[in-house]
Write a structure and sequence with these properties.
This protein is mostly helical. It is 53% helix and 0% strand. The longest helix has 30 residues, at 225-254. The protein is globular. The chain binds a DNA duplex through residues 36-38, 41, 85-87, 96-103, 105-106, 109, 113-115, 117-118, 121, 166-167, 169, 185-191, 208, 226-227, 229-231, 233-234, 236-238, 334, 378-380, 382, 384-386, 388.
Length: 451
DNA sequence: TATCAGTCAATATC
DNA sequence: GATATTGACTGATA
């Protein structure tokens, strides 16, 4: 398909009332068992099914860089203005659950950091936003759902069945029967605040704990090791996202108005040179003085995350501080070349260093000496799959004839680059933290873990 | 094999 | 009741 053709069909697509939405909903009570999104994902049920030619994936692939933050912002507005719920929106438009939608809307990742799959919801949102009848359609869905619900309710009442699980998504309903009750769902683990606190401290010490460390943490906290592992995974990735949001906010504060396209911005933050190695979010470090080759930096990111945490959870931090003994045993074998969260925020003094690390630190003392800036930064810094693939849209792809696509997606012109004072300030701040920590790290201070 | 991205779904909170 | 949070899971990738 030639580019112009595809653009044409894309345009039609965008303009045409997303047909599928209805179909997928109506055909079957979507809620019911549709083996949720995961199954339906591959061949997404959504707006585009009518177009055999262009799958959502293709659309995503062709999509110019989108302003994820802006999109979610607008979606949120539309939803709230029209009193439409996330669940409805997610299930009908995005094919995602309420929790995912919430997460997505609240913490969109920058476009350039999203894998193709991750971009999908944003493209859908964009298409939805561009659809003049979007709200209407959702309203219809809402009505329909309500109707269906009433109907079901009615029939179940007459069946003398007590009330029924309300809305969509509750497929267990039918299960009343055969579903092996003993299917014993694992009860959800809920970590106690102290446990979280301890884990956070451990994280600050070592964001990538060794199995041994994990084991210990698990024992000390009386958790399963898998829980600890999961916790670290989740925490790392969530921190990264938070960071992005914070960046955006800082950015938009410093420069309101300019269609804040974080994605665009970050892509641009590290002008060309870094190519993809730049994470955008960590763009700050591009400004790192001394030209330390800022490798799209894990370290910085981590730094910033610590920073963020501090900002967002002062109380918590405050609590944590007393515990600190100052010297982050920083480097762990596992840590080498990884994002390293700075144990404390700027002002804050010594890092809260839970000490499980005592030996953990010893464990890899040798490597721990590694310089603060590793040459190659895997981990967070490493470009996500999407970035890795050459097919990266971002700013670095010049040959992309974005203009037509952009208009197609209703995009504003690329957001202006920015490096505002706020960012600079922040960068400076972070640098000083890093510096302090490096210094601290070179000292040897005993650390103790306390849980 | 470890880590990540993306997501679900249970639970908490508003 | 809607939304936010978060532990867990799956599949991809290096």
């Amino acid at each position: 398909m030639s580019s112009s053709e595809s653009v044409k069909s894309l345009t039609e697509l965008v303009q045409q009332p997303c047909p599928t939405i209805e179909t997928s909903k109506e055909g079957k009570p979507p809620e019911s068992s549709d083996p949720p999104a995961s199954d339906s994902q591959p061949t997404t049920p959504l707006p585009l099914s009518g177009h055999s030619a262009l799958s959502i994936q293709e659309l995503v692939a062709m999509s110019p860089e989108l302003d994820t933050y802006g999109i979610t912002k607008r979606v949120k507005e539309v939803l709230t203005d029209n009193n439409l719920g996330q669940r409805l929106f997610g299930e009908t438009i995005l094919g995602l659950t309420q929790g995912s939608v919430s997460d997505l809307l609240a913490r969109p990742k920058p476009w350039h950091k999203l894998s193709l799959k991750g971009r999908e919801p944003f493209v859908r949102m964009q298409l939805w936003l561009n659809d003049p009848n979007n709200v209407e359609k959702l309203m219809d869905m809402k009505r329909l759902e309500k109707k269906a619900y009433m109907k079901r309710r009615h029939s179940s009442v007459s069946d003398s069945q007590p009330c029924e699980p309300p809305s969509v998504g509750i497929d267990y309903s039918q299960g009343a029967s055969p579903q092996p009750q003993h299917q014993l769902k694992k009860p959800r683990v809920v970590l106690a605040p102290e446990e979280k606190e301890a884990l956070k401290r451990a994280y600050q010490q070592k964001p990538y704990p060794s199995p041994k460390t994990i084991e210990e943490l698990a024992t000390q906290l009386n958790l399963k090791t898998s829980t600890v592992i999961n916790w670290f995974h989740n925490y790392r990735s969530r921190i990264r996202r938070e960071l992005f949001i914070e960046e955006i906010q800082a950015g938009s504060q410093g420069q309101a108005g300019a269609s804040d396209s974080p994605s665009a911005r970050s892509g641009r933050a590290a002008p060309s040179s870094e190519g993809d190695s730049c994470d955008g979010v960590e763009a700050t470090e591009a400004e790192e003085p001394g030209g330390t080759k800022s490798q799209g930096g894990p370290a910085d990111m981590a730094t910033a995350s610590a920073d963020r945490e501090e900002a967002t959870q002062p109380a918590e931090k405050a609590k944590a501080q007393p515990l600190s003994s100052g010297t982050p045993a920083q480097d762990d074998r596992e840590d080498a070349g990884r994002p390293r969260p700075l144990p404390e925020g700027p002002a804050a003094a010594p890092a809260p260093v839970p000490n499980l690390a005592a030996h953990a630190a010893g464990e890899d003392a040798a490597t721990s000496a590694t310089a603060p800036e590793e040459p190659e930064a895997p981990g967070a810094a490493r470009p996500g799959p999407a970035e890795r693939s050459s097919a990266l849209p971002s700013t670095s792809a010049p040959a992309r004839r974005p203009s037509s696509l952009q208009s197609l997606f209703g995009l504003p012109e690329a957001a202006g680059a920015r490096d505002n004072p706020v960012r600079k300030k922040k960068a400076a701040n972070l640098n000083s933290i890093i510096h302090r920590l490096e210094k601290a790290a070179s000292r040897e201070e005993p650390i103790e873990w306390e849980f």
